[in-house]
Amino acid sequence: MCDYAIVNRTDRSNPNLRLRPMCIQDLDTIIAIERLAYQYPWSLANFKDCILVNYTCQVWQLEQTILGYGIMSVGASECQILNLCIHPDWQGQGLGSKMLSHLLEIGSNQQADTAFLEVRADNNQALNMYQKLGFNEIGIRPNYYQNPKGRMDALVLAKAL
Question: pLDDT band at residue 126, thresholds of 50, 70 and 90?
């Protein structure tokens, strides 16, 4: 468990499901989920750096099992969703939407007025979720993501908070 006091936020539909801050001790599990979910996963160093620089790093936990996580940076009146991932066995149950809403609430509470994120142009499941939560496409980052055939564009999305 984490070395610091944490404030838990439980899900009303399941009191055993809670959001809590991510800690270094979670990273082995998070890396395993990241590798299951993405063909080109973040490295351990990416996650560790996000925790060490005090980005907003949250996990979904059911009893002792981590189901997903979200990472966001906040500064200069905006927030950037850097990573949002739910274990493939738990996708489609609203956990991603609830995590994103939680991150946006934190961003708003920290005086961010706009949220930004990038999504793979072919990730229709994530794109649909983002659009349902009020994100709109504002641009394209050409050749942003790795792809087996080379590189793939990212759609840049934004939402006013």
Answer: very high
Evaluate whether residue 2 is within a structural domain: no
Supply the range of the domain harboring residue 137.
Answer: 9-160
Name the active-site residue from 63, 118, 137, 145. 118
Q: pTM of the prediction?
A: 0.90
Active site residue 144: no
| DSSP conformational letter for 84 | E
Look at the chain and report how many structural domains it folds into: 1
Q: How far is CA 131 from CA 10, 126, 128, in A?
A: 25, 9, 5
Question: How far, in Å, CA of 127 to CA of 124, rounded?
Answer: 5
The DSSP element (H or E) to which 27 belongs, if any, is helix 27-37
- pLDDT recorded at residue 16: 83
For the stretch 78-100, pLDDT in tens is: 999 999 999 999 999 999 999 99
Q: Based on the residue annotation, tell me whether 105 is a catalytic residue of this protein.
A: no
| 137 assigned to some structural domain | yes
* CATH number of 120's domain: 3.40.630.30
